[in-house]
Protein 1
Amino acid sequence: MSTATVANPYLREAVLTASPEQLQLMLYDGAIRFTMQGREALLKKDFEAVYNALTRAQKIVLEMHAGLRPEVNPTLCERVGALYMFVYHKLVDGSAHHDVQALDDALKILRLERETWQLLCDRVATDRGGDLVASDSEPEPGTLSVEV
């Protein structure tokens, strides 16, 4: 766990007590947040902030890719893995070429995937007879810090 995570006991506790479904949702939230930060920094021509934010988003996407389990469903993992790699390359292009459209493309997919994952979380919670603590909306800037 990163220093920032340890310094925020609320976040640390949320991560340690989260279900696998909630952790995945948190990763989507972080990837979206850092991509939005990178996009905003790009519009301001703050290239150091662009690099820092998009590097964090890239690390999260790579972590999600590494978490795929092809032994469970090879076809699904192949498709989702290709989607993650597409997003990763869009993030790299956005950073390297200062391409806002590439970041918009990445955000569109991340938001769609987050929405899909939220539906899955809701379904799992219903099947378990409880509620997962998750929001249907994206996090407000600064409300979630995911260090990778």
Protein 2
Amino acid sequence: MSADKAAAALLRIATADLADARILANMRSRNAPYLCSQAAEKIVKAVLTAEGIHASRTVAHRIDLMVDLLPDANALRDVADRFGIDLT
């Protein structure tokens, strides 16, 4: 599978995770934040994949470590800076 297709697949799954999180949040389920975290992981992994960067198993569930792998010029960093979001 190409990097673009793999990234797109991760983004589709992240979108589904967020949709499920919304449903759970409306039910006041304590599991909604977990799905949000899962979606965030998949989004960062999709960006890494699109950049041609492989996230090893040692960083697979650590968003902070995955973000550290992003190139400085990556748009995700720019968006985070613009909105004052600390990605680490």
Protein 3
Amino acid sequence: MKDLTVSERVVVRMLEAAWSAYLTLPHERDDEAMEFRRKLDEAAAVVKMRPARRAAAEAEFGRHHG
């Protein structure tokens, strides 16, 4: 997470907090918790990929304008 911006880190931490809050809800379906966790992991992955996309864009820009 070192290359994430402060705002990106906040979003990832909010997703982690959402999981903690979810765990306090009453159980309703056996597969619900894993489904929720999987969706949170997918959302976190989108945020965590942002530094790599920025680096790729910078590399692309440098190749065309270097």
